[in-house]
Amino acid sequence: MEKLELLYEGKAKQVYKINRDDAYLVYYKDDATAFDGKKKGTIIGKGVINNLVTNHLMKLLESKGIPTHFIEQVSDRETIVKKVKIIPIEVIVRNIVAGSLSKRTGLPEGTRLNKTVLEYCYKDDALGDPMINEYHILALDLVTKEELDQIADYSFKINEILTDYLKDLNIELIDFKLEFGKTEDGKIILADEISPDTCRFWDSKTGEKLDKDRFRRDLGNVEDAYNEVLRRLMGN
Ligand code: TMP
Ligand code: ASP
Hints:
Blueprint: E1 5-9, E2 13-17, E3 23-28, E4 31-34, E5 39-42, H1 46-63, E6 70-73, E7 78-82, E8 85-86, E9 89-96, H2 99-105, E10 112-122, E11 131-132, H3 134-139, H4 145-167, E12 171-182, E13 188-191, E14 199-203, H5 213-216, H6 222-234
Antiparallel strand pairs: 1-2, 2-3, 3-7, 4-5, 6-7, 8-12, 9-10, 9-12, 10-11, 12-13, 12-14
Helix pairs in contact: 1-6
Bound molecules: thymidine-5'-phosphate and aspartic acid (ASP).
């Protein structure tokens, strides 16, 4: 599939116009950033792994009734996705305390939450993706109340599906970030990626971190961790 025009370049991916009106091509890079882009680096092979991991999980979610933007993987780093307008809300789903929730609450990382927590961030790099609540979202007209309820409903369902699936692979799903998009006919579907960049994955037996926290916190063996997630998902 020929890439016609670079439409958008983010920190980890590029989006290209292609020769069809209903779809884009996403290209996954090895670039890694953290802390609003202040920390920069490369995770060799990350683009390939995140492309394969995302597509594997999107296919799983589709099979369980979650509409996603996935159409077809066309190479190691490239996937055709449905054209959507990305809703500028990052949805964070948390099962176990880690990262910024540990900082905000003082609860130690690893504390199990007795109820799944949903958080919203306003997707705006210049503002540093600040946390917002449902009132802000409706006041800013980012989506309607019905759309937000739909997004929350999908997010909880996605959490259940992924948690169950990963448990069998000895991966504990600590937390993750989702983005949704709107199609031309107004449907809300899951977009962006689901990968070790956007999820916290801990080995169920050892507690070892198998995600981007290895890069954020300079823990070493970053590539090994990403490869391990892919290996477990692909069943070899
Ligand atoms: P946090 O604990 O730093 O708020 O992160 C929560 C989850 O969201 C974690 O799985 C990592 C993911 N995440 C992103 O995908 N992109 C981001 O920009 C940030 C800050 C977190
Ligand atoms: N990718 C994000 C950034 O550079 C943050 C993160 O994933 O930690 O801001």
